[in-house]
């Protein structure tokens, strides 16, 4: 899995508690990505997918 971006933001609930936002190459229907997301669900308190989009075949 290739990560393209990692951001952290403090939660509004507790001091020193953060949410992490990650962007990566891959689609949630890919078997490799499904395995990674399944592993994350087992090892995190909270996980939400905000979007999964196909990559354009054209370069800008």
UniProtKB/TrEMBL annotation:
PROSITE patterns: ACT, PREPHENATE_DEHYDR_2
GO BP, one annotated term: L-phenylalanine biosynthetic process
InterPro entries: ACT-like_dom_sf, ACT_dom, Preph_deHydtase_CS
ACT domain boundaries: 1-54
Domain of life per record: Bacteria
GO cellular component assignments: cytoplasm
Gene Ontology MF term list: prephenate dehydratase activity
SUPFAM superfamilies: ACT-like
Protein name: p-domain protein
Source organism (scientific name): Leptospira borgpetersenii str. 200701203
Source organism phylogeny: Bacteria, Pseudomonadati, Spirochaetota, Spirochaetia, Leptospirales
């Amino acid at each position: 899995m290739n990560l393209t971006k990692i951001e952290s933001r403090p939660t509004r609930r507790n001091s020193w508690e953060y949410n992490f936002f990650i962007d990566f190459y891959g689609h949630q229907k890919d078997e490799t990505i499904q395995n990674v997301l399944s592993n994350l669900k087992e090892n995190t308190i909270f996980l939400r997918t905000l979007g999964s989009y196909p990559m354009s075949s054209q370069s800008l």
